[in-house]
């Protein structure tokens, strides 16, 4: 990574949040605050998710997207009723007005049986996962990684509470029984003659509270620098996640923390694989401006919304 880039997107060592020393934890909070207020993006290191597990996630993701089309389509998320399973190429348009995204995906969420009261009640995105039957070990890998990323997201939420000078467990009602989505993504190489504006992932902000992103070595992720209007690269750094603040934190903080635009253009000439984990939180929580994020004379930029309402609207907007 170039030195200038390192200066732009900060690196936060998350292990400090586990320190018994409150000053060390608060120092991590300060770093998160600076990152949230600037680009809303940072690299996170010293998470304790094993490299071997991360490698298995990428290997199994490649195996999934290498399945014959018929097998992938048998897991089409259109068949699921709760947005789980396979999403074909060009199914989503993250950037309004741009061509559909040049990516295919696979969605995994909290696995709930059909008789769970929340599923029976028809809550948005609640239900069972769809699993490929021809890939031994796939489900175990994804279950293990889902649990690890879920726990890490909970730690980051504690850090964000500290960053906002709130009690560390302030977001506990949001973290308890949280919804989250693990998304496997596969981007073919950008075609030599793309349609105007065609990208792997059009410019968008993420819908949830935070996103923990793993990417392979291809590069291609770009983050908007709102001050200069330029796109800055967020290349992979081994051993780290790229973490970004999503729309819910922007709403909570009245825009003090940025849910920043980002996009993917896979210019590597090869297949690109990435794995975002969206921590969307407890669907019943009402997200509204935190009192300590409202300066004198300011009014809330966003009306209160439940997590569930917000997510349903974001899906409607980008899937049509
Ligand atoms: O593939 C990536 O690097 C980013 C994906 C992304 O931004 C998303 O799925 O929201
Ligand atoms: Fe995103």
UniProtKB/TrEMBL annotation:
Pfam families tied to this protein: 2OG-FeII_Oxy, DIOX_N
Reactions accelerated catalytically: L-arginine + 2-oxoglutarate + O2 = guanidine + L-glutamate 5-semialdehyde + succinate + CO2; 2-oxoglutarate + O2 + 2 H(+) = ethene + 3 CO2 + H2O
Cofactor(s) needed for function: Fe(2+)
Keywords, ordered alphabetically: Ethylene biosynthesis, Iron, Metal-binding, Oxidoreductase
InterPro entries xrefs: DIOX_N, IPNS-like_FE2OG_OXY, IPNS-like_sf, Iron_ascorbate_oxido_reductase, Oxoglu/Fe-dep_dioxygenase_dom
Record GO terms (molecular function): 2-oxoglutarate oxygenase/decarboxylase (ethylene-forming) activity; metal ion binding
Keyword Thylakoid: no
PANTHER family xref list: 2-OXOGLUTARATE (2OG) AND FE(II)-DEPENDENT OXYGENASE SUPERFAMILY PROTEIN-RELATED (PTHR47990)
Protein's recorded name: 2-oxoglutarate-dependent ethylene/succinate-forming enzyme
Species of the source: Parazoarcus communis SWub3 = DSM 12120
């Amino acid at each position: 990574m170039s030195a200038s880039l390192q200066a732009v997107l900060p690196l936060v060592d998350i292990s400090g949040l586990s320190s018994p020393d409150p000053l060390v934890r608060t120092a991590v909070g300060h770093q998160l605050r600076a990152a949230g207020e600037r680009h809303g993006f940072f690299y996170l290191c010293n998470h304790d998710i094993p490299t071997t597990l991360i490698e298995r996630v990428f290997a199994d993701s490649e195996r999934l997207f290498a399945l014959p089309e018929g097998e992938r389509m048998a897991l089409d998320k259109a068949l699921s009723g709760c947005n789980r399973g396979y999403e074909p190429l060009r199914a989503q348009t993250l950037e309004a007005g741009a061509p559909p995204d040049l990516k295919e995906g696979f969605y995994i969420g909290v696995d709930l049986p059909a008789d769970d009261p929340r599923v029976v009640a028809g809550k948005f995105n609640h239900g069972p996962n769809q699993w490929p039957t021809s890939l031994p070990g796939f489900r175990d890998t994804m279950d293990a990684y889902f649990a690890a990323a879920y726990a890490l997201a909970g730690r980051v939420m504690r850090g964000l509470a500290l960053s906002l000078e709130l009690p560390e467990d302030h977001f506990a009602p949001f973290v308890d029984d949280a919804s989250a989505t693990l998304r496997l993504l596969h981007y073919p190489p950008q075609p030599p003659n793309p349609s105007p504006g065609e990208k792997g992932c059009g410019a968008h902000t993420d819908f949830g509270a935070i996103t923990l992103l793993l990417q392979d070595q291809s590069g291609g992720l770009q983050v908007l620098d709102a001050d200069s209007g330029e796109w800055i690269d967020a290349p992979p750094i081994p051993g780290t996640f790229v973490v970004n603040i999503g729309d819910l934190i922007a709403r909570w903080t009245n825009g003090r923390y940025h849910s920043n635009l980002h996009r993917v253009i896979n210019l590597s000439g090869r297949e690109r694989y990435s794995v975002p984990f969206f921590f969307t939180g407890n669907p019943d929580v009402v997200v509204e401006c935190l009192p300590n994020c409202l300066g004198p004379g300011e009014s809330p930029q966003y009306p209160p919304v439940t997590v569930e309402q917000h997510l349903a609207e974001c899906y409607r907007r980008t899937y049509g």
